[in-house]
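User: I've been going back and forth on whether these two constructs are worth ordering. Before I decide, could you fold them both?

Assistant: Sure. I'll take them in the order you sent them. The first construct and its structure tokens:
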Amino acid sequence: MGIRFTVLSSGSTGNATVVRNDDTALLIDAGLSAKRIDELMLERDMLGSQLDGILVTHEHSDHIRGLGAVARKYNLPIYANTNTWKAMQKSIGKIAEENIRIMESGEVKEFKSLRVESFGISHDAAEPVGYSFYDGKEKLSVATDLGYMSDKVRDAISDADVMVLEANHDIDMLRMGRYPWNTKRRIMGDLGHLSNEAAGAALSELMNGITKRVYLAHLSRDHNMMELAKLTVRNAMEERGCFYKDSEFQLCETYYDRPTPWDKVSSP
């Protein structure tokens, strides 16, 4: 089967993704209620009892809102680095000692035949990370909540077959939006979120003939639209000399209110 995944929900209202292969199923973040996560998984013919663990990117509520409840309901181990555990412990309630698992930034763990590598990212959290998943020659990378595309992140995801990458906001929409200026400055800063333009610029440097699909994720409901994000990302890539045919490379959508279809990383 290789690696398959579905982005259950993506955005400021809650984030959760399931990644699985032949023998392992992992939830990345649990930023919605346990009930809602169950509903979204059921839409993709999956049960919480089939999960083997939960990986946490960082402690913001839209990534851990249902974390404690899901872990307790299905007796699941939670994997996060030491600083993230310290930052989120009071928010997620009591977790069984055996389910508190430390996975430090940059560490690689084997989950049977699924290998997972974490990598540090730039965001205003204790020690935020992204993850790359490997099964044989297949690679999936998940990187959202990025203030900017650092060399470290670029190296970590550069040879992924498929990526889930943040395209959070349109810069002009954000500047004209209702948020106070200090919030806008945080979002646009190096510890904030990746804009459509920045995502396109990063992808223009990452494209090497290996990556087949990029899912644009964590879109702001107030300051972005999916069609605008796709258009801006594509234009930013082309302005930097990165042209592609739709048959060779696709920009794919994620949603805040429904899961993406299952995608096989090995699919053309």
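The second construct, handled the same way:
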Amino acid sequence: MEQTAFDDPAYRAAAVDLLGVLAYGELTAFERMAEDAKLAPTLDDKAELAALATTEFGHFQRLRDRLVQLGVDPMDAMRPFVTPLDAFHDHTAPSDWLEGLVKAYVGDGLANDFYREIASFVDAETRGLVLEVFADSGQAEFVVDRVRAAIDEDPKLGGRLALWGRRLVGEALSQAQRIAADRDSLAALLAGSVDRPGLDLAAIGRMLTRLTEAHTARMTALGLQA
């Protein structure tokens, strides 16, 4: 029988952890968007956000099905990440509709970028699923349109939302780094092994630069100062 990367117990643990954290992240994204839809100022906005929430749940189902395919209980795979992800969302609970939109675009966007970076170290099938899950499903256009329109109507909102965006990036990066450090399997995946190169200091620097540039681009798209 042909060997695969999953025959390596350390690699299998890392891939399962990655799929587990992403599955729980998508499940909570669905919950938050459905909840935020209640704050929508118009019926059209409510319907748009509900549609995006449905897409997030579809992503969760894809990740859940991949875990089942690997012979893993999805609930067991997600459980280690419930406390840290819930804590992040508790610390960054939006106070209104616009803060919720910025969080979904900026905060979640940075965390997704980080996990995309990790996905470059996994097998092609898992990596393809991660990239597919994180492909823009219309969320960016919706958020940018609504936030820019609100700032055009009341320019003073720009300062408050910019501060909120900067807080989110700090919290999201800290949360993602903490999860990677707390899970030995993910830390080992990033560090590499004899036959699987990892990140050296220079590569870590380049990764942080990419994350920062992507965050700045999102803030600029919203009309906010990073």
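Notes on the second construct follow. The beta strands are 192-193, 196-197. The mean pLDDT is 87.
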